[in-house]
Amino acid sequence: MQEVLGGGPTWRAIANGTGSEALIMTRRRYPSDLSDLSDAEWALLTPLLPPAKPGGRPRSSDLREVVNAISYGLRGGVAWRALPHDFPPWQTVYHYWRAWRLSGDWERIHRRLRERLRGLAGRAPTPSAGIVDSQSGKTTEKGAPRTRSALTAAKR
């Protein structure tokens, strides 16, 4: 691997599997509680990610950076367009998140990781009970939607 330094981010040349090299941007890590996966976490997550579609052009974005950006955006409540510029383009990040969410891959990944974590903690792989707080479950006092006439009558 060759490091190429520029004025801002650092670029690293990697083999992309087709006999040629691609440049990927390397950046300083964000705090681990916000986004960046450790090497151990990435090794656990990699086999769960869907493979590239056959017949298309090769992926030009590093999936690890895409997952880091998705995590950063979801954990921080950041709008997709407001992702820091050292992540892949926001359109790319949003595309992967939306495709994985619609195909069910995002839920499948979450379920597998949750089951593994519960197993490591000595618990059953899936939860056996759920709790609903009575304050969270309330909708309205009478359970019926308020009509416009009821709202205007209340103002009088």
Structure description:
- This protein has 156 residues and is α+β, with helices and mostly antiparallel strands.
- It has a domain at 29-48 and 59-124.
- Helix content is 40%, strand content 10%.
- It is built from 6 helices and 3 strands.
- The protein has helices at 39-45, 63-76, 90-103, 105-120, 134-137, 148-155; strands at residues 2-5, 10-15, 21-26.
- Helix 2 (63-76) packs across helix 3 (90-103).
- The chain is extended.
Protein topology:
Layout: E1 2-5, E2 10-15, E3 21-26, H1 39-45, H2 63-76, H3 90-103, H4 105-120, H5 134-137, H6 148-155
Antiparallel strand pairs: 1-2, 2-3
Q: pLDDT below 50 for ≥5 consecutive residues: which ranges?
A: 1-8
**Beginning-to-end CA distance, first to last residue:** 75 Å
What portion of the residues fall into strands of 2 or more residues?
5-15%
Give the SSE order as H and E letters: EEEHHHHHH
Tally of DSSP helical segments: 6
Read across the widest sheet, the strand sequence of neighbours is 1-2-3
Largest sheet: 3 strands, antiparallel
How many β-strand stretches? Answer: 3
Amount of helix: 40-55%
**Based on CA inertia axes, which overall geometry fits?**
extended
Secondary-structure-based class equals alpha+beta
- Average of per-residue pLDDT values: 78
- Rg, Cα atoms, Å: 22 Å
